[in-house]
Amino acid sequence: MKKIPEHGWCFVCGTSNPHSIGVEWWLGDDGILTSEFILNEAQQGPPGNAHGGASAAILDEAMGLVVWAAGHKVAAVNLEINYHKPLPLHETLHLAARITQTDERKIFSTGEIMLPDGTIAVSGRGIYVTAPQLFEKVQLYRQE
């Protein structure tokens, strides 16, 4: 397992952003990106549960980051998020994201946020296209 460096002002994982959710990422030798995190009232939607936008942002970041970690400078062109169960606040949640397909122009990835018992609560699918021109002037990751 290798820790993925955080990236500054990222809403999901950046330490420079005082409003960041604070998610940390790990990449396995199998190419699967994982995380364990706890959401709190800053991400609340329905009382005691996370806002759907918070879980969508986390999956958006995870599904894109697993593609980045494989060496592709990409931008999302389509995200699909499916809500199966509410995400409770103050409980350890688990995440896994992986690349599922690579075409000439598109890279597909999926991700799931799971409850403490392993039940999939939120799942997603993303389609990404190579777009290095969008990142020429940006250093995305901090070196540790």
Tell me the layout of helices and strands.
Layout: E1 2-4, E2 25-27, E3 33-38, H1 52-69, E4 74-83, E5 92-102, E6 106-114, E7 120-130
Antiparallel strand pairs: 1-2, 2-3, 3-5, 4-7, 5-6, 6-7
Morphology: globular
Cα radius of gyration in angstroms: 15 Å
**What would CATH call the architecture?**
Roll
For CATH, the homologous superfamily is named as Hotdog Thioesterase
CATH fold name, please? Answer: Thiol Ester Dehydrase, Chain A
Total number of β-strand segments? 7
How many angstroms does the end-to-end distance come to? 16 Å
**What portion of residues belong to β-strands?**
35-45%
Q: Domains counted in the coordinates: how many? A: 1
What integer is the average pLDDT? 91
Report on the structure:
With 144 residues, the protein is mainly beta. The protein has a single domain (30-135), classed as Roll (Thiol Ester Dehydrase, Chain A). The chain is 12% helix and 37% strand. The protein is built from one helix and seven strands, in the order E-E-E-H-E-E-E-E. Strands 1-2-3-5-6-7-4 form a seven-stranded antiparallel beta sheet, covered by helices on one side. 28% of the residues are buried.
Q: What are its keywords?
A:
144 residues; mainly beta; Thiol Ester Dehydrase, Chain A; 7-stranded antiparallel β-sheet; 7 strands; disordered C terminus
